[in-house]
Amino acid sequence: MDKSHNLQSAVQGLHLARSLADTLQIVADGVVTGLGYELACVNLVRPDGDLVVAAFAGNSTAEAQITGRVGSRESWERRLGMGEHWGDLVFIPHTEGWVLDDDDVPQWYTDGPAPRFEDEWHPADRLFAPMYARSASGASHGELLGVISVDHPLTRRRPGPDERRDLEEYAFQAAVAISNARLRANMQRALVRLDREQQTLRASEESFRQAFEYAPNGMAIAEMGGDQNGRILRTNDALCRMLGRPASAMRRYSFSDLVHPEDIGTLLRTSAEGGRAELRLGRRDGTYLWVSLRNSVVADHADGPRFLLTHIEDIEERKHREFALAHRASHDALTGLPNSAELHARIDARLCALREHGSDAAADGMGGAEGMGGAEGVGDPYLDHADRAATAHTHVWAPVGDDNTHGLAVVFFALRDFKAINTRFGYDAGDGVLVEVARRLAQAVRDGDTVARYGGDEFVVLADGFGQAEAHTAAVSIQSLIHQPIRLDDQVVRMHAGVGIAWAQCGTAPGDILRAARGFAS
Hints:
Blueprint: H1 3-14, H2 20-34, E1 37-45, E2 51-57, H3 60-66, E3 70-71, H4 73-80, E4 84-86, E5 89-92, H5 94-97, E6 126-132, E7 144-153, H6 161-196, H7 201-213, E8 218-223, E9 232-235, H8 237-243, H9 247-250, H10 255-258, H11 264-269, E10 276-282, E11 288-299, E12 306-314, H12 316-330, H13 340-356, H14 360-364, E13 369-373, E14 393-396, E15 407-415, H15 418-425, H16 427-444, E16 450-455, E17 458-466, H17 468-483, E18 486-488, E19 491-493, E20 497-504, H18 510-521
Antiparallel strand pairs: 1-2, 1-7, 2-3, 4-5, 5-6, 6-7, 8-9, 8-12, 10-11, 11-12, 13-14, 13-20, 15-17, 15-20, 16-17, 18-19
Helix pairs in contact: 1-2, 1-6, 1-12, 2-6, 6-7, 15-16, 16-17
């Protein structure tokens, strides 16, 4: 599995826990299952400032021996001030860490051979990922919540830039999850306290008012049942600030009035009591904010009317990070285009859409393919000394049906002799050529078409509603754009591309369609 998928899965798991203890253990387990380390320890800051080993993963013996043990804040601050700082991460190599062997921080010692090369992981190396609360003042860090310590990378090497970025991102998400778990625990305790104090109504109402009004996240009370079911009765300041709407205006709405049209179904599927959902709510300025909704039912009196208490948490930053992780998993890092896995998924989705709408293409099947190739073997195929044009030739595998048939065209472009660019000018130049070809392809297609990077020097265009002649014309036009000169510093090169075209129907495997088109582009 791709590492970015592992990280994305680990991050999503952080927000599924129901308690603080579960959250801490999931944080430790996620490092081992998703980030590529054999051991992980979560050290949580206690109210007195010292750090306790709250969770451990990767070694049951170590877990039994050090879980619950405490290290002083002074010793931890010393550690976090040493070594090499990789962004928020702190790495203390074994050549420096020996001075920490006798401090009071709980440690698990492992044996192993001395490193054989410079960046090999040493058993005495230490790597820490501090977790900070989000700062209300806008500073880069809030208070320290705890520290994740990791050991024994599966690669047996010191983490590279990608691994460091993933661990730093995971520590940020873990801090968010821990903060939210604490907030939920505090709110649950407040609600339990409120229930116990119902016999003394005045004290109960004051306790609830303070918990409601001064909650750091949004809170709302809505009617349950009757003609006004769901109408918002009361909101706290945090929710009004979150949505940019005054309390007087909020009382004119229900959540169904504020939710994004695409999220109405999510809201309706959320049960009244104990329901939870992630969706978008509309701000006053017309934009939408990602939030997490959690519902509880409260009663005004012992036998009085029941109301819905909704806890609203701003998760905009987390959702954007999740979307970014998903984008990394489905797009090529160099060109920014969809990668081969995403291309297969889009072919599946478009073919099923064709079936649902009764397209002519669905009736024709994977009718055929055709290909075009650039001129080869004339002078120097890279340097633009002669300023010659490419001469196209065509292979045809005629689609089944008449010439008016329109369907999903899969157009495959294979760059000719691209490896020679890397050999002659270097890999940076080769990357520049690929980026420029990707740019030209993206500018040449219609809105709604897909341009993907299929392999090292291969690109694919998906286009709906094309017939044989139209697909051929579009392919020749795009091919001519690829053939135009590309400047590399003081040199100019021309790339030539073979082209293959295939049509497909729902039920055809994307791999078969692509192989058909690729065969004519080769």
